[in-house]
Amino acid sequence: MLITNIYIVICVLIWAYINFMSRDDKYDTAMRLGGFYPPAVIENREYWRFITCHFIHIDFIHLLMNMYAMYVLGSSFEYILGTVGYLYLILVCMIISALITYISSEMHESSYYTLTIGASGVVYGFFGAMIALGVLVKGPYLSWLMSSIYVILINLIYTFINKDISKTGHIGGLVGGIVAVVFLLLIGFI
After folding, report:
1. I want to staple 184 with a disulfide (CB 3.0 to 4.6 A). Which of 64, 82, 179, 189 is the partner?
2. Other Cβ atoms closer than 10 A to 149
3. Per-residue pLDDT at 129
4. Rounded to whole angstroms, how far apart are CA atoms 91 and 109?
5. What span, in angstroms and rounded, lies between the C-alpha atoms of 39 and 54?
6. For 123-145, b where at least 16 C-beta lie within 10 A, e where not — what string?
7. Which residue in 111, 100, 16 sits closest to 57, CA to CA?
8. pLDDT digits 0-9 by tens, 127-155
9. Distance CA 18, CA 117 (A)
């Protein structure tokens, strides 16, 4: 659980800095620290935001929900995949989540000036990885998926009814988790 715990600690420290130490506006601070903001990526070539945005939270409930999911699901995937496989899963989920958000901002002017933050892309990547393992490997993974399917469905429904949620970030993470697991299966890692 080393990687999971490090991820959680980084997120909590950044949240604490934004809310208790920074004297600037919370959203300005989140953007300065690496929130995904298409104009900064496109105009300034700040591609590191594809990764850093996944560690930043402003709202406590957002942080709490993501860190709980990160702890429960992340711990399981860290055990199943080992350190290298788990880091690979997280990285693929981060990149595809941000990439789909980036592509959407290029296609829809309304999302061009939107700040996207939070570990939800990674959490949805875990959902995607669960789906891929359950469908493609079956066995205990199918049981795990079936026992968690209501959580995945509730989260997907909530994503589409809440106007403040990055739909592209969540769906991108879900796709990223599926893609990551399919690749690991193809190379015989799982």
Report:
1. 189
2. 14
3. 97
4. 27
5. 18
6. bbbbbbbbbbbbeeeeeebeeeb
7. 16
8. 999 999 999 999 999 999 999 988 899 98
9. 13
Residue 162 has pLDDT above 90, yes or no: no
pLDDT of residue 189: 94
Residue 84 confidence class, pLDDT cut points 50, 70, 90: very high
The total of other beta-carbon atoms located within 10 Å of residue 24's CB is 11
Q: Are 37 and 115 in contact (CB under 8 A)?
A: yes
Closest C-alpha to 115, from 19, 40, 184, 16: 40
Q: What is the pLDDT at residue 22?
A: 96
Q: Which 3-state string (H, E, C) describes 119-177?
A: CHHHHHHHHHHHHHHHHHCCCHHHHHHHHHHHHHHHHHHHHHHCCCCCHHHHHHHHHHH
Q: What is the chain's mean pLDDT, rounded?
A: 95
pLDDT digits (tens, 9 = 90+) for 24-50: 999 999 999 999 999 999 999 999 999
> For residue 38, what are its two tokens?
């298409």
CB 105 within 8 A of CB 112: yes
HSE-CB for 87 with a 13 A CA cutoff = 5
State how far the Cα of 141 lies from the Cα of 150, in Å rounded to an integer.
15
Going by the DSSP 8-state scheme, the letter that residue 36 receives in this structure is B
Write down the pLDDT at residue 100.
97
User: Are 17 and 30 contacting, i.e. CB atoms less than 8 angstroms apart?
Assistant: no
Residue 44, Cα to own-chain centre: how many angstroms? Answer: 23
